[in-house]
Design goal:
The complex is a heterodimer. By secondary structure, chain A is mainly beta. Chain A has no helices and eleven strands. Chain B is an all-beta fold. Helices cover 0% and strands 48% of the residues of chain B. In chain B, strand 5 and strand 6 form a beta hairpin. The termini of chain B are far apart. The chains are: A mainly beta, B mainly beta.
């Protein structure tokens, strides 16, 4: 089973600033990585798949990068609606499909 | 665009069988455009993939749950079901039905989600 580790657990940022969230895989997943955003009381929302392709309707301020074992979700010009929990997911080698433990992005 | 609605019992007794249903509207699940997955999330914790089912009926299960889980599809009702046997408190979670749409073919990422149904295992 491929383990996904996200860091930091919590990231405090001010609106208008940028944020970088990290996701590391225990073995290479190629570019088979997705990012999700989850707000309280809501289902996850797909942001990025294929490590760097934005899903339909996702603003350009969300950017995914990386391959192999190291991935980054970058969010520029943070807006109030961006403060949420973010999860990464690998789908290179499954079952099982596995998720990271999440990074909480909070107001500074 | 598909819309998903999960339903379940809310409260289940330990050792009993949990049965969940995902009702699909806005499209037929018996096409090669989608596949369905169940994913769960214990309160305050990370997401855990449970199982996938394809329009062909092919299924894949999380090895950690495989002995207790069955996913199935009823094309006549446009529903996907999940059964989890011998539940314990560790199965308490929000259970989500989710689909991989045809637009993401080649990527096992989930772009269509239901609102989830909360299941508590307690006596």
């Amino acid at each position: 089973e491929i383990m996904m580790t996200q860091s930091p657990a919590t990231l405090s940022v001010s609106p208008g600033e940028s944020a970088s969230l990290s996701c590391r895989a225990s073995q290479s997943v190629g570019s088979n990585l997705a990012w999700y955003q989850q707000k309280p009381g809501q289902a996850p929302r797909l942001l990025i798949y294929g490590a760097s392709t934005r899903a339909t309707g996702i603003p350009a301020r969300f950017r995914g990068s990386g391959s192999g074992t190291e991935f980054t979700l970058s969010i520029s010009s943070l807006q109030s609606e961006d403060f949420a929990v973010y999860f990464c997911q690998q789908y290179n080698d499954w079952p099982p499909i596995t998720f990271g433990q999440g990074t909480r992005l909070e107001f500074k | 665009q598909l819309q998903l609605l999960e339903s379940g019992p809310g409260l289940v007794q330990p050792s009993e069988t949990l049965s969940l249903t995902c009702s699909v509207s806005g499209g037929s699940i018996s096409t090669n455009n989608y596949y369905c997955a169940w994913i769960r999330q214990p309160p305050g914790k990370e997401l855990e993939w449970i199982a996938n089912i394809y329009y062909t009926g092919t299924t894949y299960y999380n090895p950690s749950l495989k002995s207790r889980v069955t996913i199935s599809v009823d094309t006549a009702k446009n529903q996907v079901s999940l059964k989890l046997t011998s539940v314990t408190a560790a199965d308490t979670a929000m259970y989500y039905c989710t689909f991989r749409p045809g637009s993401l073919r080649g990527h096992d990422a989930f772009d269509i989600w239901g609102r989830g149904t909360m299941v508590t295992v307690s006596s």
